[in-house]
Amino acid sequence: MTKHNSKNVFGEKLITCSEDPLTGFFRNGCCDTGPEDRGRHLVCAIMTAEFLIFSKSRGNDLSTPIPQYNFPGLVDGDRWCLCALRWKEAYDAGVAPEVILEATNESVLKYVPMEALLEHAFKTEEI
Questions:
Q1: In angstroms, what CA-CA distances link 58 with 27, 51, 85, 103?
Q2: Sheet with 98-99, edge to edge strand ranges
Q3: Which long-range contacts (CB under 8 A, 24 or more apart) does 19-27 make?
Q4: Whole-model pTM over 0.70
Q5: Can you give the residue range of the structural domain that contains 2?
Q6: Partners of 44 in beta bridges
Q7: Which residues contact 125 (CB under 8 A, 6 or more apart)?
Q8: Which residues, including other chains, have CB under 8 Å from residue 36's CB and lie 6 or more apart?
Q9: How many domains does the chain fold into?
């Protein structure tokens, strides 16, 4: 499901990252971006407990609900549009979560090498 004309890291239409919880800078389910997105919420990542602890230690608590902002708090397994530089920081620290490449905005390539994303690409298990 595509929300806008944004492209993913393969140059194809950006697919939905998550609608439950509803993610994206614009809260449209996609890792769309625009000039007002100063955090560059570009990486569709699958949360892990390890990453959530890391992010909280860096001052961005993604696990605690904030009802006034309709933010449920994230748990292990949730998909979320992460800020490109936070994902890169986690990558450098060895705690980067897996990435859904088809739902990751191509703009991330300005901040994160494709090789790093491929290294953490979510792969479905073959039957």
A1: 23, 11, 12, 25
A2: 79-83, 41-46, 98-99
A3: 21/71, 21/72, 21/74, 21/78, 21/80, 23/79, 23/80, 23/81, 24/81, 25/81
A4: yes
A5: 1-123
A6: 81
A7: none
A8: 25
A9: 1
Residue 14 CB: number of other CB atoms within 10 A? 27
Compute the half-sphere exposure of residue 97: CA atoms within 13 Å on the CB side of its CA.
28
Q: Quote the tokens at residue 34.
A: 């625009």
Tokens of 25: 């800078």
List, for residues 3-59, the tens digit of each pLDDT value: 468 999 999 999 999 999 999 999 999 999 999 999 999 999 999 999 999 999 999
Residues 102-120: pLDDT tens digits? Answer: 999 999 999 999 999 999 9
> What phi and psi, each to the nearest 5 degrees, are found at residue 92?
-65, -30
Q: What's CA 32's distance to the chain center, in Å?
A: 11
